[in-house]
Amino acid sequence: MIINHPLLGPRDRQEFTYLGDACLIDRPGWQAGDAMDQFFEYVYLRDDPAGEHRELWYHEHGDRSWLVVTRNTVTHEITNVELASDVARKQGRSK
Question: Residue 46 and residue 21: Cα distance in Å, rounded?
Fold first, then answer.
């Protein structure tokens, strides 16, 4: 599987470490009134879809960047790759 890194171009999947669902970018606020419930869902509840899915990948054997990869979990076709920092900024997060 080849991941087309936004800065470095096509890279072999073996350079990366898979973390999981890209929803990890959406960390809940610790000061919310229902923070315990939000963190429980954030840590323990995950979807495992068949088909298109957004995932976090870490470029461990490269520039150590975090990527959000949109991949079909059935065919392994990658349709989009973005820097996780860019995705977070689009969502209004500072980092």
Answer: 7
Q: Give helix then strand counts, H and E, for the chain.
A: 2, 6
- How far are the Cα atoms of 2, 58, 73, 78 from residue 50, in angstroms, in the given order? 20, 22, 6, 14
Answer yes or no: is pLDDT of 19 > 80. Answer: yes
Tens-place pLDDT, residues 39-88: 898 888 777 789 999 999 999 999 999 999 999 999 999 999 999 999 98
Measure the CA–CA gap between 90 and 73, rounded to whole angstroms.
Answer: 25
CA 4/CA 1 separation, integer angstroms = 10
